[in-house]
Amino acid sequence: MAQVDVKTIVSNFENIDLNTVFLSFFIIIFAVILSKIVAFLLTKISEKTWKHRLDFKSIISISNVLIYSLAVYYILASVFALSLNQLVIFSGFIGAVIGFGMRNLFEDIAGGIIVTMEKPYQVGDRIEMGGYYGEVKDIGLRATRLVTPDDSLVSAPNNLIFTECVASGNSGSPEMMATLDIYIENDSDVDLAIKIFREAVVTSRFVYISSPTQPVVILLNDYPFYKGLKARAYVNDLRNEFIFRSDITQRTWDEFYKRGIKPPKAPIMNYEKTAE
Predict the structure, then answer these.
(1) Which of 98, 192, 229, 250 has the fewest CB atoms below 10 angstroms from its CB?
(2) Do 155 and 205 belong to one domain?
(3) pLDDT by residue (tens digit) across 217-244?
(4) Which CATH number goes with the domain that contains 219?
């Protein structure tokens, strides 16, 4: 039965004419255009519904997989008139070819499908992947595209989820934790500095506080030549992460200078990384 099906498949492909090629090409182009339209519409809708923005964006990658899968299935089943058994055999043959000659591409596609289904991260998330940190703009079948803080577009292959840890800062939530470090002289009034720092955080128009799950925490670290204050708080919209940090930094130091709290004269060192 398998030999007969293989011969039938071969004969079907041998009988390809110009009309079949044009029809297949048209279906592929239609699938690409349709996926772009769906992504555009979902993006527009997501920007108008802040609360469900990431939910709508997460549908984009799922819709791409469905559209392209249906396009390939239609071409094989209708255009080339392959039966179900022939499709299974053909899929196995293609899988073997990909496994031998296009392993990296196959791993990227498999990674894209796993990301779409299991959602370790989704469109709109802030993640660290392949040594880069940024917002996920698109999850394709081959690569995930990130926009970094300096507005660079980075394409990271999807197969990195098999070999590296991928950290998501918000895991599908519109809010995310943001940390901010401020360093002051050793002889500064620490209690006053903490009070000023905390007030700057909790009064920021970008902060999200829903105690006890999203608290504001101020940590004090004592270093050899200065003291460090670290704030941990949630920003109300992950897109405001860097504005949030700038807002707190500016208002904190404005008040510090009024109260005589000065930055350290010694150069700042990353003692935490040195200790590791």
Answers:
(1) 250
(2) no
(3) 999 998 888 999 999 999 988 888 889 9
(4) 3.30.70.100
Residue closest to 217 by CA, chosen among 197, 242, 246, 240 = 197
Does 162 share its domain with 180? no
Query: For residue 274, is pLDDT > 70?
Result: no
Residue type, 100: F
Tell me: do 182 and 162 sit in the same domain. Answer: no
Q: Which residues contact 54 (CB under 8 A, 6 or more apart)?
A: 46, 122, 123, 124, 125, 172, 173, 174
111 and 195 both lie in a single domain:
no
pLDDT band at 248 (very low <50, low <70, confident <90, very high): very high
Task: For residues 114 and 131, state if they share a domain.
Answer: no
Question: What is the mean pLDDT of the segment spanning 175-197?
Answer: 92
- The CATH number assigned to the domain holding 137 equals 2.30.30.60
Position 2 scores a pLDDT of 44
- Domain range for 266 is 176-275
In this structure, the answer to whether residues 55 and 110 fall within a common structural domain is yes
275 pLDDT band, cuts 50/70/90, is very low
* pLDDT at 276 (0 to 100): 46
Residue closest to 64 by CA, chosen among 117, 126, 106: 117
CA dihedral 125, 129, 133, 135 (to 10 degrees): -30
Residue (of 137, 126, 128) closest to 46 by Cα position: 137
134 alpha carbon, distance to own chain's centre: 7
Q: Assess whether 140 and 193 both reside in one domain.
A: no
